[in-house]
TrEMBL record:
It comes from Amycolatopsis cynarae. This is AAA family ATPase. It comes from the Bacteria. SUPFAM superfamilies: P-loop containing nucleoside triphosphate hydrolases. The lineage of its organism: Bacteria, Bacillati, Actinomycetota, Actinomycetes, Pseudonocardiales. Pfam families: AAA_18 (PF13238).
Length: 210
C-alpha cells in the first residue's frame, strides 16, 4: 500500500505511524517494511514574497534532486478546515510528500506554513526532519506587490494587513521557532538571485544529511 499510515500486511490504519530508521513497523501486527524517511523542505513565507515565482524556476534548477510542489493545489473545499492551523490540510500534504519520498527523492513544498503547523502532527514521524526557509519582504514592497495583483484574487486592505502582520512576525520570531526558520529578504533581490539562494539552501541541507 502507498498510504504510509496503512500496514500492507494486516491493513491497520496507524494514527501515529511507527518509523524506526529506514523501517516502518506496524503497531498492531508487528510487520516491518522498508521505508524512505527523507527530509522535507518547506519554502514558506507570506503571500507576495515570491514563493510561487521562485518555485516555478526551481523545477528545472533542481530536477532530479527534489520534487517541487505547490501547496495551494490541494486547497480544496474538503480540506479547508479552519481549525487551529488547518490540520487536515497539513496532514494530507505530509502523507502526499511521504508517498513521493518512497521513490527516493525528497520533496520541496512551496506554501505558507510554520513549524507548529507541521511538527505536532502524527505524520511528522514519516520524515527525518523538516527544513524551513521563509521568503520575506519589506512591508511597503510586500503591500505594493499584493495591491498589484489581479482583482479576482481578492486582495483587499484587510487581507493585506493580515499578511503584513504575518510577515512582521516571521521577521521578528523565525529564529525562535522550533525548528528555527531561515529568512531570505526578496525586497531588492532579482528573481535569479532568489532562485539561487533557495537552490543553495536545498543543496546545503542535503550535504548536512549525507
Amino acid at each position: 500500500m502507498l498510504d504510509p499510515r496503512i500496514c500492507p500486511a494486516c491493513g491497520d490504519l496507524a494514527r501515529v505511524p511507527l518509523v524506526e530508521g529506514e523501517i516502518r513497523r506496524c503497531g498492531r501486527c508487528g510487520h516491518r517494511w522498508p521505508f524512505h524517511r527523507l527530509p522535507l523542505y518547506a519554502l514558506t513565507g507570506p503571500s507576495g514574497a515570491g514563493k510561487s515565482t521562485v518555485g516555478s524556476r526551481l523545477v528545472s534548477r533542481l530536477a532530479g534532486e527534489v520534487v517541487v510542489l505547490e501547496q495551494d493545489v490541494l486547497w480544496t473545499a474538503g480540506l479547508r478546515d479552519d481549525v487551529d492551523g488547518h490540520p487536515a490540510f497539513r496532514a494530507t500534504w505530509l502523507r502526499m510528500a511521504a508517498m513521493i519520498h518512497q521513490n527516493g527523492v525528497p520533496v520541496l513544498l512551496c506554501g505558507t506554513v510554520v513549524p507548529p503547523e507541521f511538527e505536532r502532527l502524527p505524520e511528522r514521524a514519516l520524515f527525518s526532519e523538516i527544513r524551513y526557509l521563509a521568503l520575506i519582504a519589506e512591508p511597503e514592497a510586500l503591500a505594493e506587490r499584493l495591491r498589484g495583483r489581479p482583482a479576482w484574487r481578492g486582495w483587499d486592505e484587510a487581507r493585506i494587513a493580515e499578511t503584513l502582520a504575518f510577515n512582521d512576525w516571521l521577521r521578528r520570531d523565525a529564529v525562535a521557532l522550533d525548528p528555527p526558520v531561515g529568512l531570505f529578504d526578496t525586497t531588492g533581490a532579482s528573481l535569479d538571485a532568489s532562485v539561487e539562494r533557495v537552490v543553495a539552501w536545498v543543496r546545503h541541507c542535503g550535504r548536512l544529511r549525507s
